[in-house]
Amino acid sequence: MEKGRFYAVGVGPGDPELMTLKAVKTIKNADVIVVPTTESKNTTAMRIAAEYVKDKEVVSCHMPMSKKMATDNWEKIEEFHRESADIVGNLLDQGKDVAFLTLGDPTVYSTVMYVHRILDKRGYPTEIVPGITSFCAAAARLNVSLCEREEMLHIIPATFTDLDEIEKYKGTKVLMKSGKTIMDVKDRLAKDGAMMVEKATMEGEKIYKDMNELKEPSSYFSLVVLHSKERQEK
Q1: Where residue 39 falls among pLDDT bands split at 50, 70, 90?
Q2: Phi-psi sector, 182: left (phi>0), alpha (psi -120 to 50), beta
Q3: Domain positions in the chain
Q4: Which of 100, 161, 162, 221 makes a 20 to 30 Å CA pair with 67?
């Protein structure tokens, strides 16, 4: 029997209208939809794509995203990745095409790529369907560009919190998933002219063009944009 194909599908930042035509087509044509779940049973990607999933077979894979676990027990997380790859591999062996849904774009800090890598090494046919990233969506909601002319763009994960080091980077800095620690650095970011979007394009979206307006910790889906002083002066 011919093996099925694995698709890592980016469903975009939150607004279903921001899903690509290719993502929609891939989901519609897939035999099985796989969604990642975390400790909180997070199914955000599924809610975004719900209109196109409908009566399809849906399989959940537990993919914990705890910062503490990632720091203290990466081997345990890798075990979850292998278990997810085993689940998907069984479906592929049955000749089923599988679409694994992920927020934003699969190639940017996405857990689906760990499963993709394992399956690719095992010889299964794999493909990546790109999606609109959260930082591009956030810039659009702030009504600004991220980088112009020779400006560099730095995408920085929330696990990297050394602002002294970050400030050395030239160009625009984007701090991904900054919600949990944002109050610890809010005043400094406000002084530096940073802006923030919480839940960009999702229900409950909040936009802060002045970080001084932030009065309480924000959600996991928070993203900070810090332009260079030169850009801010334009």
Answers
A1: low
A2: alpha
A3: 6-129, 134-232
A4: 100
Lowest mean pLDDT among 64-68, 80-84, 137-141, 203-207: 64-68
The CATH homologous superfamily for domain 134-232 is Tetrapyrrole methylase, C-terminal domain (3.30.950.10)
Rounded to 5°, angle at Cα 175 from 213 and 202: 65
- pTM value is 0.91
CATH code reported for the domain at 6-129: 3.40.1010.10
CA dist 47 → 35, 172, 203 (Å)? 10, 31, 11
**DSSP state at residue 143:** T
Alpha carbon of residue 17 to chain centroid = 17
Tokens of 194: 């940073």
CB 99 within 8 A of CB 147: no
Per-residue pLDDT for 223 more than 70? yes
- Top-ranked range on mean pLDDT: pick from 25-39, 53-67, 149-163, 195-209: 195-209
CB atoms within 10 A of CB 51: 11
CA distance 185 to 104: 25
